[in-house]
Design goal:
Order of helices and strands: HHHHHHHHHHHHHHHHHHHHH
Largest sheet: none
Low-confidence stretches: 1-25, 425-435
Number of strands: 0
Mean pLDDT: 89
Structural class: mainly alpha
Shape: globular
Helix content: over 70%
Length: about 425
């Protein structure tokens, strides 16, 4: 055999051996699983489901088989093939080596799939079976959560509230960790309040927030209990806004300034809430305020300046006042606007944190929009585009504001344009008479 023939033969054998090893490498558990993950991440759900099914078939005892089953079911779920997704969990349940807690997790997944396709009767049967078989509180609470959510979405409020009350009882009697117990109870009460608000039962929603406050007050040793108490009080007050009772809401936000559960950092926001309530109260069909209403709003913004001048709230209040008085006292409005712009520019030049400059630039653009100073607003937005061209979200927001300005300018030009008979009617008539 000559040298060239021997070399070709050797190269063929080498290629064949490499191909064999490459084929083996491609069929390792990691390789098959990773192909499935890549397809899933690329949203190729059919390919991903084939790879994960292949993994389960070839490597049933691999440590990743549980993940593969879940991802396969998720592929079917995202393709809205609920029956196949259930089949995955049913197959997984039938594996004799599966621990009892994982069997229950499979059952809960099956129940969720029944609920997703609207088969409430079968979903309820599955969740009740989990509750009966569970030895610890967590699977029971999770199942009650799913039942409450399921009936809440179906507008069956009474049954949803029944399950949420059961969660409260189980949490009280069976959960040992104080933080977990308090968290679970607060979540259940908030869900209950949301259901009442959805059915316009605002008084009952307030009762649930009052119960939340009681739970948070009793949570000694829980680090975030202070925030939970404050949230319960503010959520309680917000129900008056949801109910359209803006007078009561404005009054209550004032009273909360002295509430022991309200932290100092939140107090300026209560003034914002009061102003928003007043704006809703005053808003008419034409979107304009009477002189008396304007005076009330200006007073509240001045109150913000008086109490929180060295904060963003104080700066923003200047813009709000300027926009309210720009037609009646333009000199004072310009003075307040200039002060606000100068403050924003200082933040840009000497940023207290990296995210502040872009926010200040948007605040400048928004201030000019409020003043209906369209050209200046466009210039401010162009500055943002030049400075933050590599930040997609900033570019998107800036363009949306530019589009809004263009619409406002077009509407103003259309309003200012003379009617046809005003623009040329007399001339046409004169031509006819002259003829």
């Amino acid at each position: 055999m000559n040298k060239q023939l021997r070399l070709a033969h050797w190269m063929f054998l080498t290629a064949a051996i490499l191909a064999i090893f490459a084929g083996c490498a491609q069929n390792t558990p990691d390789a098959v699983f990773n192909r499935g993950m890549k397809a899933y991440q690329e949203n190729d759900l059919i390919a991903a489901s084939i790879y994960f099914d292949d993994f389960i078939t070839k490597f049933p005892d691999n440590e990743r088989s549980w993940d593969a089953y879940n991802l396969l079911a998720l592929c079917y779920y995202r393709m809205r093939d609920f029956g196949s997704a259930r089949g995955v969990y049913e197959e997984l349940q039938n594996k004799g080596s599966l621990p009892a807690n994982m069997v229950l997790e499979c059952s809960q997944a099956i129940g969720r799939l029944y609920a997703e396709e609207g088969n409430l009767e079968k979903a309820q049967a599955v969740f009740e079976d989990v509750i009966e078989k569970a030895t610890g509180p967590e699977p029971k609470i999770n199942s009650y959560w799913m039942l409450a959510s399921m009936y809440g979405k179906q507008k069956q409020a009474e049954k949803a509230h029944e399950y949420l009350e059961t969660i409260l009882k189980v949490a009280d009697s069976d959960l040992e960790d104080v933080t977990t117990k308090v968290t679970t109870k607060l979540q259940a009460l908030e869900a209950s309040a949301d259901i009442y608000k959805a059915s316009d039962e605002f008084s009952k929603a307030r009762d649930e927030y009052a119960r939340s406050l009681d739970v948070a007050k009793s949570a000694t040793g829980v680090v975030w209990a202070t925030d939970a108490r404050q949230n319960a009080v503010i959520n309680w007050a917000n129900t008056y806004v949801s109910a359209g009772d803006y007078v009561s809401a404005a009054t209550i936000y004032d009273h909360l300034q002295n509430n022991p559960y309200i932290q100092d950092a939140v107090k300026p926001q209560l003034i914002v809430y009061k102003i928003q309530s007043l704006e809703r109260l005053f808003s008419g069909d034409d979107g304009k305020y009477t002189p008396e209403e304007t005076a009330v709003l200006v007073h509240e913004h001045h109150r913000m300046i008086d109490n929180y001048d060295n904060t963003d709230y104080g700066t923003n209040a200047r813009v709000e006042i300027a926009s309210l008085i720009k037609d009646t006292t333009p000199d004072e409005a310009k003075k307040l606007l200039d002060e606000a712009i100068a403050r924003y520019e200082k933040v840009i030049a000497e940023p207290p944190s990296p995210d502040k400059p872009v926010l200040a630039m948007f605040q400048i653009a928004n201030a000019y929009i409020k003043m209906e100073m369209w050209d200046q607003a466009e210039q401010a937005l162009e500055r943002i585009k030049l400075t933050y061209s590599d930040v997609p979200e900033a570019m998107k927001q800036a363009q949306a504001m530019v589009d809004y300005i263009q619409k406002q300018k077009a509407a103003a030009a259309e309003t200012a344009a003379p009617l046809p008979d005003e623009a040329g009617g007399d001339a046409a008539t004169g031509a006819e008479q002259g003829g």
